[in-house]
Structure formats: structure tokens, C-alpha cells
Amino acid sequence: MKVAFIGMGTMGAAMALNILKAGYTLTVHNRTRQKEAPVVQHGARAAGSPMEAASDADLVITCVSDTPDVEAVVLGENGIIQSARPDTVVVDMSTISPAATRSMAETLARNKISMIDAPVSGGSEGAQKGILAIMVGGDAAVVEKALPVLKTMGQTITHVGPIGAGQVTKAINQTILAATYLGVAEGMALGMKAGLDGNKVVQAIAGGAAGSWVLDNRAQNMIDNDYPLGFRVRLHHKDLKIALEAARALGVALPAAALVDQIETGLIGRGFGDEDVSVIARTIRELSGIKNG
Fold first, then answer.
1. Which residues pair with 116 in a beta bridge?
2. Whole-structure pTM over 0.90, yes or no?
3. 289, CA 20 to 30 Å: which among 54, 95, 103, 258?
């Protein structure tokens, strides 16, 4: 099977490398062309456009930033739809609007091109290790065709429903994560103000009901007030907007997500948008009178 991968960002490049390691023939493309280089050095072929990348691929993966970016990559004048053969499978692993996903799938289907949505969770660490959680929406037969390639990138792969269901599931994931990041930030601030050793607090609670991926992997950032990039706060903010839009349409209250949305808006406005999502703790520290340095 020939695979094309479009989007060589923090997540995409690592995911593409795992496809290469599994022995697949891989073509890659990125809007900022120099970002293709690390994957090309490991044996991938670089393509000048999504159209060129898709021209001889059996399966085309997209992993780009936002809904308009995916629409351009898939349906634009130099997009996948312009060259993909009938029976090609498009796998969108971005996090975008469920409604836009369904619309793109309908357009591709008129050209006999199949599409599934397969957003991921697990951060840059999960992408590098090939242990992402992948939430898949689409026709079962198409999902089955893509499954061997998905297994090179993910450890937990769940077919959650029809096209668009993966994106709704990712919105749920980001909603829960928002509250978890906020809760850990608040807990760490409480411990610091009480004069406790943050590392001992984490050790004490990690094995109990408060244990979480965020506590294990991001509490240290919050204790140190240092937020090296794992997943950009501006991208999580974009994801929360998708979740809040879906919630409004369905009449669901998401008060914690709405609060984190406002905190992230402030952080992005102050220039912290490219730091890790755990930078939420910066705001909690400030509100708590803890010196940020």
C-alpha cells in the first residue's frame, strides 16, 4: 500500500516516521516545505502539493491545524480531490468541525473517494512512540482498509460511529482534558500556597482517584512554571471552540470548558499561545498570588 501524509507538524512528522518504520512507501507534503526534510531523510518522497502527494497513493492522511486548512488540502485547486484515484481512502487525523468533515466526505464520495475521520489524543510523546489513542468515524469497510496503517501510529483504535463521529469524540476528549488541566493547576497552586513539596503531593495522589495523564505528565510543568511544548495552547483552544459549538447546537452545558476557553483566550492574547496547554497554570498561579518569575 502506498501512503501519502500531508502535514508535518509536531504530531504529523512523528506519525509519518512511524509509518515509514513499518515499511510503507510514503510520500509527504507540508505547506512549509522545510518541515518535510526530517521525514524525507528517513526515506519518504517529498511532493510539491497535496494533489501531487495523492496522485499515486492508496491512502492519504491529513494532519493539519484547522477546518479551513483541511478543506484546502482536500478540496482546493491543488487538493487531494484533483488527483486521487477512485477507491482512494482519505484519513483526516486533524481535529476539525464534525459538520465540515461530513460535508467533505460527501463531496469526495461523488468522485468515488472514501473518507474517514480519525483524530488522535496522546500528545507529541504518544505520536513519537506510536501509542496514540485514535477515534475513528466512517464506514466500517473503509475503516478496515485503513486499520493496518492506523496501527503503526496508535495503540488504542476505536471505531466510534459514522463519518464525523471521530471528531465529536475528540471534542469530548478535549472537553474532559480542559477540566483536568484546570483541576491539576488548581491543586498544584493549593499545595504551593500551603508550603508543600509539589513532587511529594503528586506522588501521594497519583495512585488514587485523582490520578490522570495530566497529573503524571504535566504537573511538573506547573510546579516549575515552565511549559515546554507538548501540545500548543492555541490548538487546544481551537479544539475547545469546536466542542463548545457542538454543545450549543445540542443544548449541552459545558461550564468548565467555557472557563478554560476564557483562560486560554487571555493566555494567547498575552503571547503564550505556542506554549504547552499546561500553561493554564500560569493564570491560576497569578490569581493565587504565586510568583511566576
1. 91
2. yes
3. 258
Give the C-alpha separation, 282 to 272, whole Å. 10
Grid coordinates belonging to 186 = 488548581
Q: How far apart, in whole angstroms, are the C-alpha atoms of residue 140 and residue 106?
A: 16
Q: Is 290 exposed, middle or buried (CB count within 10 Å of its CB: 0-12, 13-18, 19+)?
A: middle
Domains of the chain by range and CATH? 2-162 (3.40.50.720), 168-287 (1.10.1040.10)
Amino acid (1-letter code) at residue 245: E
Sign of the CA dihedral running 37, 39, 43, 46? negative
Q: Where does residue 184 fall: left (phi above 0), alpha (psi -120 to 50 degrees), or beta otherwise?
A: alpha
pLDDT averaged per 10 residues, the chain (length 293): 95 97 97 95 97 98 95 97 97 96 98 97 91 98 98 98 98 96 98 96 97 96 94 93 94 97 98 97 97 72
Catalytic positions, please?
170
Using an 8 Å Cβ cutoff, are 114 and 92 in contact? no
Q: What is the pLDDT of residue 229?
A: 86
| Backbone torsion region of residue 87, taken as left when φ is above 0, otherwise alpha when ψ lies between -120 and 50, otherwise beta | left
Closest CA to 125 of 14, 286, 3: 14
